[in-house]
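Tutorial, part two.
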Amino acid sequence: MASMSAFFLVVVVALSHYLISNAQTEEERLSIKYYTSVRVSRGETLWSIAEEYSDEHYDNIGDYIDEVVSINHLKNREYLKDGQYLIIPYYSENYVK
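Running the prediction step on this input gives:
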């Protein structure tokens, strides 16, 4: 399962380089979606993780949580274990002329 997740991660990162968002003045904003692994600390929840990593690319925090649940094949949305690792999405903004 780890190799499948790694393959999925590589494919998504490669494809995400083609995402381009709105132009700003003379530059275009290039919005790239990445994935990283985070270690869950004691007391953290999907909500607290989403508050830290979600941004304007999601309509709401629930959409972000749904994506994290899907990526990580979580069955129980309410329970995260201390020390557990999650793959989470985030966006990076770059400007090109």
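Residues 17-24 have pLDDT under 50 and may be disordered. In part three we will examine how such features are distributed along the chain.
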